[in-house]
Amino acid sequence: MPQLGFGVWQVPDAEAETVVATALEAGYRSIDTAAAYDNEEGTGKAIARSGIPREDLFVTTKLWNSDQGYDATLRAFDTSVSKLGLDYVDLYLIHWPTPERGLYVDTYKAFEKLHADGRIRAIGVSNFLPEHLERLIAETSVVPAVNQIELHPHLQQHAAREYHAEQGIATEAWSPLGQGKGLLEVPAIVAIARKHGRTPAQVVLRWHIQLGNVVIPKSATPSRIKENIDVFDFSLDAEDLAAISALNEDRRLGPDPAAFNGA
Ligand code: NAD
């Protein structure tokens, strides 16, 4: 799995073909979409049009909450691959645990079947707390390859990252730039950016990379799409990393996974 990919949440389907094509031209090879983003068709069109060999791409999509359950998952997966125009996906994620539904274990068993059938290369989850992962690991056979969680300098997720590392689960950071809101204006980040002759977004993405997180920044602006992947030719030093670590506030932008039950 490439450590840096392209996220397409909030990209309208009609624009996804152009935006994803721009990302593929800029060198991204990993795309993160979801049934709920309603842009699998546009994403699939960009992939088809790119001419990039399928084996060079890493495509992630996610199962929405209302499709949880064994049979519903099998049907939802068929819909997603058909919209994407693909025979298989590289990574399929349960979008949220929605623990009140009580269906994430059954859902994951359908993921295991699709995995065994070769229709998904790797299976994982998103927004799972360690308690949900513990139950999943106890009751199913395949340890999730990935847990995609909200993670940025204001929400550093130390406990989750540690638990993932113990279990051999990759940590993937959603909203890695904190959705571009105040985070990119924080003086400590702006100062580090000046020191390296880089942008604040590049500094934050580089911090993730050096921590070992998988990141999937989103932008619909061609110059930012290019800027966000251009983070592999400089390094943050120990002082920079410590200054960013000091920004943790355990503050979520998104919902609390223990309570979120989105339909
Ligand atoms: P992000 O942290 O990637 O921020 C994106 C926003 O930051 C952009 O809309 C833009 O306003 C700004 N931005 C981007 N590049 C910039 C740059 N170089 N300079 C200045 N501003 C810049 O936020 P996101 O889109 O929420 O998260 C990224 C991806 O994570 C999503 O597209 C999606 O694929 C995934 N995601 C998953 C979940 C989940 O529940 N699993 C939830 C949210 C997002």
Automatic annotation (TrEMBL):
Keywords: NADP, Oxidoreductase. Residues 4-249 form the NADP-dependent oxidoreductase domain. PROSITE patterns: ALDOKETO_REDUCTASE_2, ALDOKETO_REDUCTASE_3. InterPro entries: AKR (IPR020471), Aldo/ket_reductase_CS (IPR018170), NAD(P)_OxRdtase_dom_sf (IPR036812), NADP_OxRdtase_dom (IPR023210). The keyword Chaperone does not apply. This is Aldo/keto reductase. The keyword Oxidoreductase applies. Belongs to the aldo/keto reductase family. Transmembrane segments: none annotated. PANTHER family: 2,5-DIKETO-D-GLUCONIC ACID REDUCTASE, NADP-DEPENDENT OXIDOREDUCTASE DOMAIN-CONTAINING PROTEIN. The lineage of its organism: Bacteria, Bacillati, Actinomycetota, Actinomycetes, Kitasatosporales. Pfam families: Aldo_ket_red.
